[in-house]
Amino acid sequence: MSAYEQLMAFEHTTQALGQVAGRLGWDQEAIMPKGAAGQRAEEMAAMESVLHARRIDPKVGEWLAAIDTAQLDEVAKAHVRHIAKTYARTSKVPADLAAEIAKVTSRSQGIWAQARSDEDVAGFLPTLQEVVNLKRQEGQALAAGGDVYDAMVDDYEPEMTAAEIAAMFDAMRPRLVALRAAVLAAEAPQKLSGHYPADKQMALTAKLAASFGYNFDHGRIDCVTHPFCSGSGQDVRITTRTSENDPFNCFYSTIHEVGHAAYEQGIDDAYLLTPLGRGVSMGVHESQSRIYENQLGRGRAYTGWLFEQMKAEFGDFGIESAEAFYGTVNRVNDGYIRTEADEVQYNLHIMLRFDLERALMLGDLAVNDLEAAWNDRFKADFGYAVDRPSHGVLQDVHWSVGLFGYFPTYSLGNVYAGCLNEALRAAVPGLDAQLAQGDTSAATGWLRENLQRHGGLREPAATIEHATGKAPSGAPLLDYLEAKFGEIYGL
User: Fold this and answer.
1) For the chain, what are the domain ranges?
2) CA-CA 20 to 30 A from 386: which of 83, 179, 309, 316?
3) What would the pLDDT profile of 39-55 be if each residue is shown by its tens digit?
4) Please, what's the largest Cα pairwise distance for the chain?
């Protein structure tokens, strides 16, 4: 076997073990008994130790040094690029630190969930301080004297920096704030009301998932506190949640997670259990969930079909027409929860978190001051006060599990989705006629062919440019939002 072949055989096993570790995480959130949390933390730490050891195995360095990349094709070069980057980054983090982070964040997740349920910020802060301390150590090791937060962002969005993100957000904020103010000053569409049994929501949500091409032979849907997607290749699982007075929470959480799952299920089978067999970045991943959820799922054509499905499942639910239902689905509401935020306000939630977590990691904000900083910023951005911790600093799972640098990728995903939607509409001019029948295949097929099947072949920005023919820009998203909500609200 050549050095490249030996490297790929070794990497195949590492990728398989990584999938096992991911399944432990899915189980912890979806079906693990509460009393197993302590043991699971030890199991996660053990798995991380094994993976860390494989990622920095000296043989990997020897194989990489022996490979002449000039002799490799595009796919092989991409494999080597990913493995070399992982090897270099992982080698900077001590094994005992990696294991401790896995152990503490596994335990922290349960503590956060209980604190959120109890509205008890003080009960969570000591654990969060542990997580922050450990992640700062990791960031310092990775940055090697550079920007700690940049090193964290690079885990989720390669080749992106905090300064670039801040510049993008600063450019977007004025138009978002102006649109929000104009919309909230106008007459709002009818608000959804009534009771929607959870079992009927789950029956319809399975139909929605199928309408977007989710392959149930290689997946499943479960209910959790915070919806997510887990896995890749032949085992890609999604989760959702139900609220009996808000079925949109369930339906659009499901469509969102199907977007993530479709990316993983759509990757070329030749990349299974290789570095290319997963989405290239969290921002590109989020572009799939957001275009599925918003530009497609909340569009006038698809909501017309969903209106008929809701009538069939729930009977008369108080909305008179498909056009009125389109307005209801896209109603801009005051609210606290990021995952429930409308398209107009969602990115403002992300900008808040980006600034706070960046300050935390750089040491400019103390953990004990985090709740006050959150509440002050929220009041300034949204104009009203946070009423309880589960609507504020305790609402998201991310910090409890150490995902610092992750939040900005949600807005990057929205930006990428805006670019993809512009290109999709140009490529498939008759799209709405199909969406009106609940047929998303032309849209999802275009996304699979132009983006999803390539997995991690290209870097994030190049992935979007390959699909759209243009470099990523925030302009298509802002233009789309202003046109859509300007029409709905008569601006």
Assistant:
1) 3-146, 162-488
2) 179
3) 999 999 999 999 999 99
4) 69
Over residues 322-333, the pLDDT tens digits come to: 999 999 999 999
- Is residue 272 pLDDT above 90, yes or no? yes
Binding residue per annotation — 164?
A: no
8 Å CB contact between 30 and 239: yes
Angle of CA points 307, 251, 339, to nearest 5°: 130
260 annotated ligand-binding residue: yes
* Tokens coding 230: 């887990």
Cα–Cα distance, 226 to 306 (Å, whole number): 24
pLDDT at residue 339 tops 90: no
**Residue 476: partners with Cβ closer than 8 Å, 6 or more residues away:** 418, 419, 421, 422
Catalytic residue list contains 159: no
* Calpha distance 451→433 (Å, rounded): 23
* Inter-residue contact 216 to 210 (CB < 8 Å): yes
Separation CA 374–CA 267 (nearest Å): 38
Q: Return the exposure string of 290-320: e unless at least 16 CB atoms fall within 10 Å of the residue's CB, then b.
A: bbbbbbbbbbbbbbbbbbeebeebbeebebe
Q: State yes or no: pLDDT of 340 exceeds 90.
A: no
Compute and round to an integer the Cα radius of gyration of the chain: 22
Query: pLDDT at residue 450 above 90?
Result: yes
Q: Which residue has tokens 């003080």?
A: 122
Pairs from 246-249 (Cβ < 8 Å, separation ≥ 24): 246/192, 246/196, 246/340, 247/192, 247/196, 247/201, 247/204, 247/310, 247/314, 248/192, 248/329, 249/340
| Contact (CB, 8 A) for 260 and 416 | no
CA distance 360 to 169: 19
- By C-alpha distance, which of 142, 149, 488 is closest to 300? 488
Q: Which two tokens stand for residue 21?
A: 């570790």
pLDDT in tens, 203-223: 999 999 999 999 999 999 999
Instruction: For the chain, give the percent of residues with pLDDT over 90.
Output: 95
Residue 311's closest CA among 325, 297, 294, 301? 325
pLDDT at 360 over 90: yes
286 known ligand binder: yes
- Which among 257, 293, 343, 459 is annotated as catalytic? 257
Q: Which residues contact 380 (CB under 8 A, 6 or more apart)?
A: none
Nearest-angstrom CA–CA distance, 310 and 447 = 27
